[in-house]
Amino acid sequence: MKTVSQILHAKGAADVHAVSPDETVLEAIRRMAEKGIGALVVKEGESIVGMVTERDYARKVILMGRNSDQTAVREIMSPTVLYVRPQQTNEDCMALMATSRVRHLPVIEHNRLVGLISMGDLVKDIISDQQFTIEQLEHYISGQHA
Q1: How would you classify the pairing of strands 104-109 and 112-118?
Q2: What is the mean pLDDT of the chain?
Q3: N or C: which end of the chain has fewer CB within 10 A?
Q4: Please, where are the H alpha helices in the chain?
Q5: pLDDT digit string, tens, across residues 92-102
Q6: CA end-to-end distance (rounded Å), the chain
Q7: Name one Pfam family in it (predicted).
Q8: pLDDT in tens, 3-29
Q9: Which SS3 state, helix, strand or coil, does residue 93 take?
């Protein structure tokens, strides 16, 4: 199993997109759409104070009849933020996501936000590992019959 650090390195994107709790939900959703992402870290200065996701928007704005241009991110964000460290494994992340029912985990190192891991990142890593194993087995099998 790869570590979070290895997965982030392979992902190549070091940017973690964030939003202020005082920005409107409309601004947050626009940022997610522009970046092609499903979640933003909510920060006040350098402190992480929450996470806001497309799911939060659907459930806490749309279904509640709120206006996204008049609702602050702080009103819909999840204030409890689970996170992982760079040395943790894909398996650690998958277990935490499954038990906590979250799809995004900030990566914290030395009290600094250094990345964001998504369920998609973890699945891509697993598929890549499986593909490598299949190729190795095929190579081994074809070498046995040559």
Answers
A1: antiparallel
A2: 91
A3: C
A4: 4-11, 25-35, 54-57, 73-76, 90-100, 119-144
A5: 999 999 999 99
A6: 32
A7: CBS
A8: 999 999 888 766 799 999 999 999 999
A9: helix
User: Can you tell me the distance from the alpha carbon of 39 to that of 37, in angstroms, rounded to the nearest whole number?
Assistant: 6
* 145, pLDDT greater than 70: no
Cα(84)–Cα(53) distance, integer angstroms: 18
Sequence ranges of the domains in the chain: 4-144
Query: Are 116 and 39 within 8 A, CB to CB?
Result: yes
Read off φ and ψ for residue 131, nearest 5 degrees.
Answer: -60, -40
Q: Which of 76, 84, 80 is nearest to 32 (CA)?
A: 76
| Residue 78 amino acid letter | S
Residue type, position 97, single letter: M
